[in-house]
Write a structure and sequence with these properties.
- The structure holds two protein chains of two kinds.
- Chain A has no helices and eleven strands.
- Chain A is mostly beta strands.
- Chain A is globular.
- The termini of chain A are far apart.
- Chain B is mainly β.
- Chain B is 0% helix and 56% strand.
- Chain B is built from no helices and eleven strands.
- The model of chain B has no long low-confidence stretch (mean pLDDT 90).
- Classes of the chains: A mainly beta, B mainly beta.
């Protein structure tokens, strides 16, 4: 199984809502990532988990809160978002954590709209 | 920190060749190439490590000049399926990864 799954596919939320994005992989990968992608722009790295520990936080606002409950699951908790947070949120995983970066496998993304 | 790609966009007829360039102001330890089709996730093409290597993947190949901090992606005899946005990417260590600015490639019949 070389698939990364993400749920939900689409999410519309108000600025006062709390919601969560979910990502799952069963490839035994030890690194997992959250990226944010605006239209016609490259994906921007938000967080990296290595061996279930947060290793990189790219100065992301605290209204985004990542969580890695186990080696296969990655969540992104959303609270009090702003309209400018509307974007495609991509999850990815790679085999290694530390050392040269391997190929990243991406999920299909969650299209988030904040009203 | 983000690598810069050129051109920003290119339109090709089927069978034509294209070159996409990726340049960084910081030292490159490796270069990754991904392709993203509209509405889909990025898909890995190849990784090039230090050493000036060149790799191939079907009719898509790439080179990496670490001294110039540049990489180029070569697409030969383009097919309609090659359409999409191509991103280079570089790592900073610790799985910290930055995508390049992107190149939109459209292949027309």
């Amino acid at each position: 199984d070389t698939e990364v799954t993400q749920t939900p596919k689409h999410l519309v939320m108000g600025m006062t809502n709390k919601k969560s994005l979910k990502c799952e992989q069963h490839m035994g990968h030890r690194a997992m990532y959250w990226y944010k992608q605006k239209a016609k722009k490259p994906p921007e790295l938000m967080f990296v988990y290595s061996y279930e520990k947060l290793s990189i936080n790219e100065s992301v606002p605290s209204r985004f809160s990542p969580e890695c409950p186990n080696s296969s699951l990655l969540n992104l908790h959303l609270h009090a978002l702003q309209p400018e947070d509307s974007a495609l949120y991509l999850c990815a995983s790679s085999q290694g954590a530390g050392g040269p970066l391997n190929e990243q496998f991406f999920g299909p993304g969650t299209r988030l709209t904040v009203l | 920190q983000q690598p810069v790609q050129s051109p920003q966009a290119v339109i090709l007829r089927e069978g034509e060749d294209a070159v996409i360039n990726c340049s960084s102001s910081k030292a490159l330890y490796s270069v990754h190439w991904y392709r993203q089709k509209h509405g889909e996730a990025p898909v890995f093409l190849m990784i090039l490590l230090k050493g000036g290597e060149q790799k191939g993947h079907e009719k898509i190949s790439a080179s990496f000049n670490e001294k110039k901090q540049q990489s180029s992606l070569y697409l030969t005899a383009s097919q309609l399926s090659y359409s999409g946005t191509y991103f280079c990417g570089t790592e900073r260590g610790g799985n910290q990864f930055y995508f390049g600015t992107g190149t939109s490639l459209t292949v027309i019949p």
